[in-house]
Write a structure and sequence with these properties.
By secondary structure, the protein is of the alpha+beta class. The protein has 15 helices and 21 strands. The N and C termini lie far apart (51 Å).
Length: 523
């Protein structure tokens, strides 16, 4: 038996190797979080206003598949058994300690005396109820397969719960620390499960207050919180679609923070004595994706032709102003499992035209490229439109509001799309299983509608392998096959940006782009 206490070993060695080595934000030289103006200390109270491009798509963690929506509730309204610290190490939260009994058995000891916002108790039954709902096929959760290795949850007593797995799963703690591991109110699950999408009920430091669809979501401080209470009275997430308006609101003091900063505004922010820029390397990657299941992009030669015709370096420099770095695969260098030894198709117009002819489209064709309404994404789409025109491919750009965009790529109504995957765990399984396994087609994350039985098998082997070096090799093999099949064109490793004014203290973003508000104060 191997006992793993949080004060000694957070998880077995394989997990800690990637957490410490791959998941640190590494943002020391990029974190420009120091205020340039007022240096007086913050005080308790006040309403924090966060302005955002788009509204949330839903607030039920069992159905959330995008970081912007999870950002509203993750470790704010809802909490998890374990969580990440600033260095991406696992630490206790609703669980005080844990023990890996064997490859398939994990025991958790829970905090005592915690209540949900609706007054119901947090205990082992609540943990079981939450995960049973997530894993029940009748629930229809797109998150089900992410935690599908959990075969049974056994309640030992109020403060002890056992997770039984159907197969070894190396990054279990990292997925339990993510939004998918949120522990929902058992009372809400039993009495009003349909309301959880709009009225979340958790144990967190913030209590859900209201949601005016398309306008704002308001959370209030949980005055009965079991841990250290947040300093602010409330936080409002306001929808402000215009980039310039968001920035002006922060500069004037009408708002405080925006985590969606156009790269074209960096110089303006740095030149202002009222604005501050927070920068941190992220776990996410941006790419051009193909719907591989529908004609004409079910033709691999056509996908390769388009891949050769996209000059990725020009996009990084011309659109992103060198914010972020050139990606080689759909996995960030900050994620365990990444390798620099897998190479995408280089820019080669002649090779692109040759493959286009072999694919039977030497006389040209029309393709639709879908993007959401973020300014940089639209600019990238326009650059790609111009580049593909050079090989005779006419691109029609389709721009959608974020919620409609997510709905479209989840239903498979698209051809090409500009996408990004915000890894929430720092582990390669969250990337590979969700993006490329056939079980994840559609809403869970495989918006390429890609199915390759060999890739499926490799990903399954990797998630069950406890040897870190063997997992690395397996992920390299799967990523080589995905590039060979031209499933996507890697564009950019994210660098997350946030702008905030001098009224805000102790704000930061984590590597998954979550707003960390636990210690925020307003001056």
């Amino acid at each position: 038996m191997k006992k793993l206490k949080w004060l000694s070993k957070i998880a077995f060695v394989a997990i800690m190797v990637f957490m410490l080595q791959a998941c640190s934000t590494g943002s020391g030289n990029k974190d420009e979080s120091g205020n340039k103006g007022n240096t007086s200390e913050g005080k308790e109270g006040g309403n924090l206003v966060v302005v955002r491009l788009s509204d949330a798509t839903g607030l039920d963690p069992h159905f959330i598949t995008d970081i912007p929506s999870a950002n509203i509730v993750y470790e704010k309204v809802y909490e998890t058994l374990v969580t990440f610290d600033k260095e991406r190490n696992i630490k206790p939260l609703l669980a005080t300690e844990w023990e890996q009994v064997d490859d398939l058995t994990w025991n958790f000891t829970l905090q005592e005396g915690i209540k949900y916002h609706d007054g119901s108790p947090f205990n082992a039954d609540a943990v079981k109820t939450s995960f049973d709902r997530l894993l029940d096929p009748k629930t229809g959760s797109p998150q089900k397969d992410k935690l599908g290795m959990i075969s049974e949850i056994i309640v030992e007593d109020d403060t002890h719960v056992t997770f039984k797995l159907s197969e070894p799963y190396a990054p279990l703690l990292s997925i339990l620390a993510s939004n998918e591991g949120s522990i929902l109110s058992p009372k809400s699950i039993k009495e009003a499960p349909d309301t959880l999408a709009t009225k979340p009920v958790g144990t967190g430091p913030f209590v859900f207050d209201s949601w005016k669809s398309g306008q704002q979501i308001t959370l209030k401080r949980n005055e009965e919180y079991w841990g250290e209470k947040v300093k602010i009275d409330s936080v409002e997430f306001k929808v402000v679609p215009e980039d310039a308006t968001r920035l002006a609101m922060i500069e004037s003091g009408e708002a405080h923070i925006s985590d969606q900063v156009p790269v074209t505004e960096i110089d303006r922010i740095n030149g202002s004595d009222k604005l501050n820029l927070f920068r941190t390397d992220g776990l996410a990657v941006e790419y051009v994706g193909f719907n591989t299941s529908n004609a004409p992009l079910d033709n691999v030669k056509l996908r390769k032709a388009i891949s050769y015709a996209i000059e990725r370096e020009a996009i990084i420099e011309g659109v992103y102003n060198d914010v972020g770095t050139l990606a080689n695969v759909a996995m960030s260098p900050k994620v365990f499992g990444y390798t620099k030894d897998v190479h995408p198709y280089p820019y080669d117009v002649n090779k692109a035209k040759e493959l286009l002819k072999e694919a039977g489209y030497d006389k040209g064709l029309k393709i639709k490229l879908l993007t959401n309404d973020r300014k940089e994404r639209i600019n990238v789409a326009e650059v790609i439109q111009s580049q593909l025109k050079g090989i005779g491919v006419e691109v029609e750009i389709q721009v959608m509001e974020y919620g409609a965009y997510i709905d479209a790529i989840s239903k498979g109504t698209h051809q090409m799309f500009l996408g990004g995957w915000g890894n929430a765990t720092g582990d390669g399984d969250y990337n590979q299983f969700n993006l490329f396994h056939s079980a994840s087609v559609g809403a869970p994350g495989n918006h390429f509608y890609y199915k390759n039985s060999k890739v499926d098998k490799i990903i399954e082997e990797a998630r069950a392998e406890s040897d870190a070096s063997k997992r690395q090799e397996l992920y390299k093999e799967s990523m080589e096959l995905e590039i060979e099949d031209a499933v996507y064109v890697p564009i950019r490793n994210y660098e997350h940006l946030a702008v905030y004014n001098n009224e805000v203290d102790n704000f930061w973003l984590d590597a998954s782009n979550y707003l960390m508000l636990q210690d925020v104060t307003l001056k």
